[in-house]
Amino acid sequence: MTAYNLIICIVPHDEGEFITKTAVSAGAGGGTVMMGRGTTASGVLHVLALGDMPKDIVYILVPAEKKSDIVGAIAAASEAKKKKFGVLVTADAAKLLKTGTVSGGGDYMTQKTTHQMITVIANRGYADDIMAAARKAGAGGGTVINARGTATPGDAKFFGMEIIPEKEMIFIIIDSEKLDGVFEAVRTLPCLAEPGSGIAFCTPVGDFTLLGKKS
Question: Is-contact 89 96, C-beta < 8 A?
């Protein structure tokens, strides 16, 4: 059964199409581009975002056997761009639904990974507070996407929180060794202490690659 990987790239706004075209030329079927904003980052390189400006977040789902070629193609093509052009990571995708058929379902990433991605979904207006706490605990920066909650009873019960339309999703990539400290700093924020105020979870990611000129 075919296994799948998700390639995630964070690049300057309007560069998402460059990433997807490069991926398609290397064997990907396509990609999805979302717009977010980077938060001001420190000099630490282990971050998801490289400045306080609009960003394109690119999701590309690929068969696992094609991942290395596609990641390599994106990294090579990005060398023609500016230094610190963006960042790329990969994560496992357990199953794929396409044209009514489910495939995948292989083993999750089992090797020890050097980086983790923390995802926080919070009521809109708290992203800067969340990132300030994360940076104080060792994170370098993050990317914020405006989102909205759904209002179905099942969602409210599943998340254990009252769903309201205006949300912010914050993505932070950090060294695995910093995960506990950053996650605890986010957990203890007053803005996330009330029921219904938000949730957070972490995902191991691999193939951490800085995109852009190497020197």
Answer: no
